[in-house]
TrEMBL record:
Organism: Haloarcula limicola
Keyword Oxidoreductase applies: yes
Positions annotated as active site in the UniProt record: 65
Residue ranges of domain Quinate/shikimate 5-dehydrogenase/glutamyl-tRNA reductase in the record: 118-185
Functional note: Involved in the biosynthesis of the chorismate, which leads to the biosynthesis of aromatic amino acids. Catalyzes the reversible NADPH linked reduction of 3-dehydroshikimate (DHSA) to yield shikimate (SA).
Pfam families xref list: SDH_C (PF18317), Shikimate_DH (PF01488), Shikimate_dh_N (PF08501)
Gene3D superfamilies according to UniProt: Leucine Dehydrogenase, chain A, domain 1, NAD(P)-binding Rossmann-like Domain
Chain sites annotated for binding NADP(+): 123-127, 146-151, 209, 232
Pathway membership, UniProt: Metabolic intermediate biosynthesis; chorismate biosynthesis; chorismate from D-erythrose 4-phosphate and phosphoenolpyruvate: step 4/7
Gene encoding the protein: aroE
Origin organism lineage: Archaea, Methanobacteriati, Methanobacteriota, Stenosarchaea group, Halobacteria
InterPro entries reported for this sequence: Aminoacid_DH-like_N_sf, NAD(P)-bd_dom_sf, SDH_C, Shikimate_DH, Shikimate_DH-bd_N, Shikimate_DH_fam, Shikm_DH/Glu-tRNA_Rdtase
Residues annotated as signal peptide: none
Protein name: Shikimate dehydrogenase (NADP(+))
Positions contributing to shikimate binding: 14-16, 61, 85, 100, 211, 239
Catalytic activity: shikimate + NADP(+) = 3-dehydroshikimate + NADPH + H(+)
Length: 265
């Protein structure tokens, strides 16, 4: 039996175990997915320990995504993003990937969104970095907007064909954009939105990385103007689908994984 898992602190509320185990069950793969909660300074040591214990693969979440870089050989995208959320142990040095980037891309593709135009990424933290690099790799022109403008400019300096902005000019940035992704935490605790409703329009596809709640104010505002709306569970699903495929080499059974994920939300 193969053992996969997640390290994070805290990990108590994680939906990754039911999502991945639904995938194993659907494909008849003899595997388990378990969660580990190392001390906050123990990320890299946990990766080494998991390797020695014969764990086949690990997902990595807050606060360890940067810390584990030293314990793995990152693939080029994870290296550019500067964060790892998926580790494949295999033989020799563990390889680190960042499936958050591809997760956003695949969530948009699942909804038929064309990824050749302009995207506005709101937020320049960990999620914003991953999504900006992921969309740029698809050929999108990326505008990063962040409350702390200097962080948006710094990130845009690393991403090809990107520009960095504050939040004040969002309406102008969005006017001719095709895709909007919220990568801030705004909307998670309160019914607030990082994007004024007046800045939204019906030609946009709006993906909200916030998945708790699923129906954020941003997505409700976006639906009201006729935009395509994609909730945060799709991004969570596809980062997991991508990890599943890296680990097993099989096409992931997306529907059972999606059902298991949404049953837990
Ligand atoms: P994550 O890993 O989820 O991206 P993070 O790295 O802490 O988390 O980043 C949080 C993001 O949400 C940042 O872009 C942050 O903006 P700042 O860089 O200016 O801090 C953004 N954010 C958090 N609270 C916000 C708020 N009330 N309004 C606007 N942006 C906010």
């Amino acid at each position: 039996m193969d053992v996969y898992g997640l390290i994070g602190n805290p990990v108590g509320h994680s939906l990754s175990p039911p999502m991945h185990e639904a995938g194993y069950e659907a494909l008849g793969i003899d595997a388990k997915y378990v969660t580990f909660e190392p001390a906050a300074d123990g990320g890299a040591a946990a990766v080494e320990a998991a390797d020695r214990l014969g764990v086949a693969g690990l997902n990595v979440t807050i606060p360890f995504k940067q810390d584990v870089l030293d314990a793995v050989s990152p693939d080029p995208l994870a290296e550019r993003i500067g964060a790892v959320n998926t580790i494949d142990f295999g033989d020799g040095t563990p390889t680190g990937y960042n499936t958050d980037a591809v997760g956003a891309v695949r969530a948009l593709e699942h909804h038929g969104v064309d990824l050749s135009g302009t995207a506005v990424v709101v937020g320049a933290g960990g999620a914003g970095r991953a999504v900006a690099f992921g969309l740029a790799d698809e050929g999108m022109s990326v505008r990063v907007a962040n409350r702390t403008e200097s962080k948006a400019r710094d990130l845009a300096g690393e991403v090809p064909d990107a520009s960095g902005h504050g939040l004040a000019g969002l309406a102008e940035l969005l006017a001719d954009a095709d895709v909007l992704v919220n990568c801030t935490s705004v909307g998670m605790d309160e019914d607030e939105t990082p994007v004024p409703a007046e800045a939204l329009h019906g030609e946009l596809a709006v993906l909200d990385a916030v998945y708790s709640p699923l129906s954020t104010r941003l997505l409700r505002d976006a639906a009201e103007v006729g935009a395509t709306t994609i909730d945060g569970a799709w991004m969570l699903l596809y980062q997991g689908v991508e990890a599943f495929e890296l680990w097993t080499g099989e096409d992931a059974p997306v529907n059972p994984m999606n059902d298991a994920l949404r049953a837990g939300l």
